[in-house]
Structures are given as structure tokens and as C-alpha cells.
Task: structure prediction
Amino acid sequence: MNAATNTAPAMQVPLRFRVLVVEDDPWFVQFLRDTLPPLSAELEVSVATKLAPAIAALKAQSFDAVLLDLNLPDSSGLQTLQQITAANTHVPIVVLTGIDDARQAQDAMRLGAQDWLTKGQPDPELVLRALRYAAERKRLTEGLIRSQKLEAVGLLARNVAHEFNNLLTIIIGNAGVAAASDDGEVRKRALVEVEQAVKQGALLTRQMLGIARPNPTGPLLADVRQAITSVHDLCAAVLPRSITIRLDAREAMAVPLAQEQVEQVLLNLVLNARDAMPRGGTITLTAKRNLDAEKRPLVRIEVNDTGTGIRPEVLPHVFEPFYTTKGDAGTGLGLMIVKDAIEHAGGAIKIESQFGKGTTILLDLPEPSA
Result:
């Protein structure tokens, strides 16, 4: 049996480790029931032989991992994986396949699987190790995303506070004018200013809550135009006046990520661009359709800035974990998490930069509907 984690050392797991096996082969199910529990006293194995009861179990119970056969009586191929991930995006999935197909494995990882195994000659220790590692990777990845999301929201907080200060100044000033004036037209204009400032404050609040909401719980299918517009509108309101942010996203496009993930990726990149323009400049967000080397449809997202650019000796290190040029102001996790999210969705990220002239980050993601 082959697995992407077959050289990894053993690791500690929770006291109770619940696994849902989705498999219709009676012999293989019995083999797992007989061999897995003796290896681990904390292991609990539940079995579903069809997709429908598997989805019902995922919605009704909590599991630490799923071992998923792609070919079931009521579903086959990657469609099985897509429906499982749509039912529960938090549970880590190890795909089980009868064919050692590298392309299928890549597609499975793109669609949300944490790992893959081929049946071959079953090795129960390898199965258990893959399940445990899938659960641990999922936990660590979600922890890093939460950490980076808090950092990004924190970086925005100062600009948001300034913006609310400005809005409160407008509200207080115009409320005072309205209260003191006997002129109906003057009072009307003042109250209109108050109303507009209140609406702007409400919009900022909604946008900040949207960016800070919990980890993805819905289907892994994001509306790129909606995500890029949301980030544009938020950043246009809170970035320094010296920075202009532009938007070019005219078509409706979808990518295999949760909506929150696309927004978080874009927010991280915009904040990096802002930091590269201490004297101001322009950030441009673009989304359009493109083709990969095999002429398959892609969605290309570009984040361009007119900032300081990246030095040639720094560029090879920007995706390394904890590598930062911001000193105590950054964790060095932002670009690493962006890269991980894009590649896990089957995409690619590229950076083009000229020192002193600006940077363009290119994100290529598959379009599932194509």
C-alpha cells in the first residue's frame, strides 16, 4: 500500500480517535475492523457502505478522520469526494483507491483530501498512521489560518479605528449643527451627512465581521468576483489616503476554495502590498479567466502594487515559514499560508517583482465548473 505519509514517525493522538470508513468491499471492511483496533486502544471505527449513509453520519456525529473509497454503489470517482467535503469541510479525508494513479491523487488533494492510499497489499499500521497524520495536519493548518486571520484583522484594526474616528467626528459635528440651527435646509443637510456616516460605519462593521468570521463550514466553491469585491470595498475604506486600490473583476468565476479562504488570501496580499508602499501608491486587484499549459480553464487572480518591490536575494525565501522582513511586526506566516491554500486547491502562486518598481502576485486556480 502506498501513501504520501509512509515515512513519517508515529505521533500522539487524542484519547479517543473516531474514524468513519466509507467502503463497500465486505472483505476490506472486515480486515480493517479486525486489524485497526488492536493497534490502538483509543480507536473507534464506524462503517458506511454507501455515500448517502456516510453523509448522514458526518452530519449527525463527530469524526476525527474519514477513510474514503471513491467508488461506491451510489457514487463514483471524485464526485464521491466532492459530496463528502460538501457535507463536512472540517473532517480530514484519506482517499482509498484501488488504482495507483498519481493524477487521481493530485485531483483528490486539490478537492480537499488530506492524503491518499492505494489498497494493494493492505498494511493496517500504514492506514492508521495516514489517518492520524491527516487529522493532525488538518488541525495544524486550521490553527495557522486562525492565527494569520487574527494577525490580518489586527493590522486592519488601526486603520479601522482611524476611520471610525473620522466618522464619529462627522456625526458629532453635524448633529451639533442640526441641533443648533433654526434653518431647516441646514438641518436637513447636516442630518444627511450624519446618515451617510452611520451607513459607512455599519458597512465597515459588516465587512470586518465577514473577514473575521470562523473557519469555512460551507461547500468549497467560492465566488471570486464577490470575494475580490468585498476585500476591495473594505480596504478602500480603511487603507491610508495615500494608497489607491483598484478593482477589475467583471466575470462571475468560481474556484475550489471556501469563500472565507479566498477573502483571507486576498486580504493578506493587500496588507503586504500596503506595507510595501510606505509613501503611498496603487494596488490593483484583477480576476480573469486564463488557460494552463494543457489548455484547461483557470481563474487568474492578480494583486499588483507600485511599492518598493522585493530584493532578488529575498525573493526565494518569501514562502518560508516564519521568514519576515517586518521584524517584530510580522509572523512570517502570511505568504506561507497563502501558498498552502492555493496549492491545496490544485492551483499555483507566482511572484514577479522588480526592486524599486513594485510587485505582482499571480494566483492560478482551477475552475470546477469548466
Q: What stands out?
A: Confidence is low (pLDDT under 50) at residues 2-14, 328-332. The first helix runs from residue 26 to 39.
